[in-house]
Amino acid sequence: MIEKRQFYIGGSWVDPVEAKTLEVINPATEKPVAVISLGSAADVDKAVAAAKAAFADWSETSVEERAALLERVIAIYQRRSEEMDEAIRLEMGAPRSFARGSQTPAGSGHLEATLEALKHHVFERPSPRGGSVLRHEPIGVCGLITPWNWPINQIAAKVAPALAAGCTMVLKPSEIAPLSGLLFAEILDEAGCPAGVFNLVNGDGPGVGSAVSSHPDIDMMSFTGSTRAGVAVSQNAAPTVKRVALELGGKSANLLFADADLETALRTSLSGCFSNTGQSCDAPTRLLVERSVYDEAIALAGKIAAETKVGDPAEEGDHIGPVISDLQYEKIQGHIERGLADGARLVAGGPGKPKGFETGYFVQPTVFADVTNQMSIARNEIFGPVLVMIPFDTEEEAVAIANDTPYGLAAYIQTGDPERAKRVARKLRAGSVYINGNSPDWDVPFGGYKQSGNGREYGEFGLEDFLELKAITG
Predict the structure, then answer these.
(1) From CA 70, how far away is CA 110, in angstroms rounded?
(2) DSSP assignment of 226-272
(3) For the residues 107-121, what does the mean pLDDT come to?
(4) How much is the pLDDT for 101?
(5) Positive or negative torsion for Cα 94, 100, 102, 103
(6) List of domains in the chain
(7) Cα 437 to the chain's mean position, in Å?
(8) Less packed terminus of the chain by CB within 10 Å, N or C?
(9) CA separation for the pair 23, 26 (Å, rounded)
(10) In degrees to the nearest 10, what's the CA dihedral of 90, 94, 96, 98?
(11) What are the Aldehyde dehydrogenase domain coordinates in residue numbering (predicted)?
């Protein structure tokens, strides 16, 4: 059993003000693998005080000093990457190969992209007419709340630009998947991060999240999670008029036109939907298919879903693992049952666990066809390996269906016509549009329209989120 009962505050590992423990459950075995402490408002007060005290000096450091710290962090992160792989496997059930190939590299990707952005960022420049100086300065003490589905990805995407900007911070990682965050705190400590610049307090939303987002000495909140929780963070932050950056939910449309290579497009589409066991906010979960190839697409989708392997995260291989928790498993089962009740046609998977998986929170890769965009399974973020297929007749109809959602995080296009791809991409109300299976580098902005959030993360765009703009005249 891993014992991680302390918090990282003011450059030291400290005991919580009041002992309250929580077991971390391995979702593949349903057994505890670690014990952490849940913090309280009193722990948050200590962490914020440490961050506030450290801000005066850290905010005045040079670009070279901050870049040197990031370089040390990158080197240690790479050296300890196997530990990060294992932490993510244990806390959230990511298969070994996926943790090593996707989850852990996301952390180094953000660190490296932020370092490059820092080195090239112009912190002071003349105004357009030359009469004033425009200066970027760190916004202050930042509260960071991160989710369990891509744990180190979101931690690095927030901590790296906050450090680069000259901010100090208090991080609350997900209490369900806290091991990667605790390891990252060890990495920062080993890299010589000055005391108080980075602080970590474990806890749940009511006990720690609310205390962070409402704290009067925190100047900015950066939150990734559900839209419901993002609204709560914004409400808590409103009385003190903090800056709030939100990366929230999605129900991303994937437009498949008849001129695409059908099998390639479907394999790309289902792989994207089922990757990370469907637990990605930008997963292409609504597959809109041109009617002339709709029946063929359904048959192929069923075949590909049936070929998708579910397996033990402890084993190597190209398979998906469990979902994060019993609660998440039950939510997904409820969505599947609702889809059946609403009249959607089950093409693959369905309720219950895959054969041979009585233990663990495993879900069958599931495909529904004949879905309308008003059905519950087309409106709500399921956050599991569940794909819904919706037919369309014209390009205009496809765009209308795609945009008919409260979300706007990502959208996908599969087509053999480059001009159509450009034309449709411009019409989609989403923060990111991916064409024919292409994916961006770590310096491309990530964030959403509508209820998918505000602000942008990654590279220079993430750095700018943590900076204030000052005009100096005369």
Answers:
(1) 11
(2) -HHHHHHHHHHHGGGT-EEEEE-----EEEE-TTS-HHHHHHHHHHH
(3) 98
(4) 98
(5) positive
(6) 2-248+461-473 (3.40.605.10), 253-430 (3.40.309.10)
(7) 19
(8) C
(9) 10
(10) -150
(11) 13-472
- Residue whose structure tokens are 């509508």: 450
β-pairing verdict for 12-14 and 286-290: unpaired
> In the structure, what pLDDT confidence band is assigned to residue 453 with cuts at 50, 70 and 90?
very high
Residue 53 has a pLDDT of 98
- Nearest residue to 453 via CA among 247, 251, 282: 247
The set of catalytic residues is: 247
- The set of residues, in sequence order, having a beta carbon less than 8 Å from that of 58 and lying 6+ positions away, is 138, 166, 167, 168, 194, 196, 197
Average pLDDT over residues 123-147: 97
Listed residue (135, 142, 192, 194) closest to 167, CA to CA: 142
Quote the DSSP letter at residue 193. P
* 185 neighbors 167 (Cβ within 8 angstroms): no
Residue 172: both structure tokens together: 């609350």
Of the candidates 407, 335, 425, the one whose C-alpha atom is nearest the C-alpha of residue 371 is: 335
One-letter amino acid for residue 141 of the chain: V
For every residue of 344-360, DSSP letters joined together read: PEEEE--SSPPTT--SS
pLDDT at 12: 98
Spatial separation of the C-alpha atoms in residues 368 and 344, rounded to whole Å? 6
Mean residue pLDDT across the chain: 98
Contacts with 467 (C-beta within 8 Å, 6 or more apart), sequence order: 136, 137, 138, 139, 165
Coil, helix or strand at residue 197: coil
Residue 459 contacts residue 447 (beta carbons within 8 Å):
no
**What is the token pair recorded at 287?**
């597959």
Nearest-angstrom CA–CA distance, 186 and 170: 15
Q: Which residue has the tokens 């390891």?
A: 183
> Which residues lie below 8 Å from residue 305, measured CB to CB, with a gap of 6+?
270, 274, 347, 348, 349, 365, 366, 367, 387
How many CA atoms lie less than 13 Å away from 244 in the CB half-sphere?
Answer: 23
Total residue length of the chain: 474
Please give the full DSSP string across 157-174, using - where no structure is assigned: HHHHHHHHHT-EEEEE--
Summarize pLDDT for 3-19 with one digit per residue, the tens: 999 999 999 999 999 99
Nearest to 253 by CA among 265, 237, 269: 269
Helix axes 151-165, 81-92, angle to 10 degrees: 130
